[in-house]
Amino acid sequence: MAAPKRVLLIDNEEGICRMVEAILQDNGYEVTAFTRSFEAMERFEPGLWDVVITDVKMPGLDGLEVLRRVKEKAPALPVIMITAYATVEVSIQALRRGAYDMLTKPFEPEELLYRVRNALKHIELLEENEGLREELAGKFRFDNIIGASSALKALLDKVEKIAPRDLSVLVTGESGTGKELIAQAIHYNSPRRDSRFVAINCGALPESILEGELFGYRKGAFTGAREDRRGLLETADGGTLFLDEVGTLPSNVQKTLLRFLQEREFLRLGDTAPTRVNVRILSATNADLKACVKAGTFREDLFYRLNVVNIHLPPLRERVADIPLLAAHFIQLQNAKFGTAVRGLSPEALEVACAYPWPGNIRELRNAIEAALAMEGGDTVSLPVLAQFIDVPSTVVAAGEEGEGDASAHAAAMARFEADYLRSVLRRHGGNVEAAAFEAGLNIATLYRKIKKYGIRRDGS
């Protein structure tokens, strides 16, 4: 059961004080009443009360001085002023100094209760909004992007430098590497953090719908346009618009977007007057936009407007040091969500997870962890359970099932797994050791040592 709301009541008229106190107490409020304002202010401390009700005209400290002192110590605390002399001048003074409401004597009990409920609701909304802002700020702080690899640290250092600068940023990287999370981190660590972050997947909508979604339209602009509609650019005014899969934009939308980036204005469909908005554009792609420019499917001038700063997210296979941290993070989230107590991956499962190339990157790792926790009955995620959701050779799984009692068999199976993986990487790159090392997240010298160790040919045979 929620604790009763606490009211500080100050009125030098003892009869009024007793009446208001009785009304509030009968309706579940906890009331502390004073007939002397000096005494009330001596006792006042932030956090002791949820609302203050004070008369305006009192000997000694009048209500306006009480209001000033309350607001000095607790600016957000709502103060309701009671007066028998509701002049415009007094009301303006009180409201300018931060009073929440004015209540004129005589008043009905229902009116008093209505004003008190409104004041309490107001403060609850303020606290809720502040909590939301803190949650958003916390969610997208840099230290909440999981990882400790040198590649991630270098990336976040770059993000921290460019976030406050109102530049267009193109985030590149394979699918599942967390491009939208980086875009959100840029927005929530920029001066635009208190305005909206609006995202759209450009590849998810057909051309006929995408243009209207981005720029809006006027009633009658096309069949089915029954009313004026604001586009996402207007919705994001003052904030950030994130264009995911920007490489899929059709040519007509590219042209309109380019005009906006150049002139900071655009035309709604069916409109003749331009619309101006203040929006920062962040975009992302897993495609090679330079190759698209050469192929003629993406405008070169738009590419340079979007790519003022480029942030490239490395694939998870190049961030092997981050895999244990990410896995632990996803396990913690699932434990909190479902009330479980899984401690982590077993040593065998963690070893395989670090050796696995994760072609779907962080998204694939998260999905695998969530699925494994749904199936796991023990206090750690075992290798046989994890192997149901990623492509692990059966020899490795069999060795993992034998556990610590046969460490040599497990080591041999892991060696076969690593050798098979390196052969496949070398085959994909036609024997180019430098490219294969880059994909595997190894330096060239290490890859050469492993090639020699496992007797692998450079062509992957």
Number of domains: 3
Helix percentage range: 40-55%
- In the CATH hierarchy, the architecture of the largest domain is 3-Layer(aba) Sandwich
Q: What best-fitting shape do the alpha-carbon axes yield?
A: extended
Description:
With 461 residues, this protein is of the alpha/beta class. The chain has three domains: 6-135, Response regulator (Rossmann fold, 3-Layer(aba) Sandwich); 144-314, P-loop containing nucleotide triphosphate hydrolases (Rossmann fold); 318-454, Helicase, Ruva Protein, domain 3 (Orthogonal Bundle), CATH 1.10.8. The protein is built from 20 helices and 14 strands. It has helices spanning 14-26, 37-43, 63-73, 88-96, 109-139, 150-162, 179-188, 207-215, 232-235, 251-263, 289-295, 300-306, 323-338, 347-355, 361-375, 383-386, 394-402, 407-428, 433-440, 444-454; strands at residues 6-10, 30-34, 51-55, 79-83, 101-104, 169-172, 197-201, 240-244, 265-266, 275-276, 280-285, 309-312, 344-345, 380-381. The chain has a five-stranded parallel β-sheet with strand order 2-1-3-4-5, with helices on both faces. Strand 3, helix 3 (63-73) and strand 4 (79-83) form a beta-alpha-beta unit. Helix 13 (323-338) packs across helix 15, helix 18 crosses helix 19 and helix 19 (433-440) crosses helix 20. The protein is extended, with a radius of gyration of 32 Å. Mean pLDDT is 84; it is low at 135-139 and 402-407.
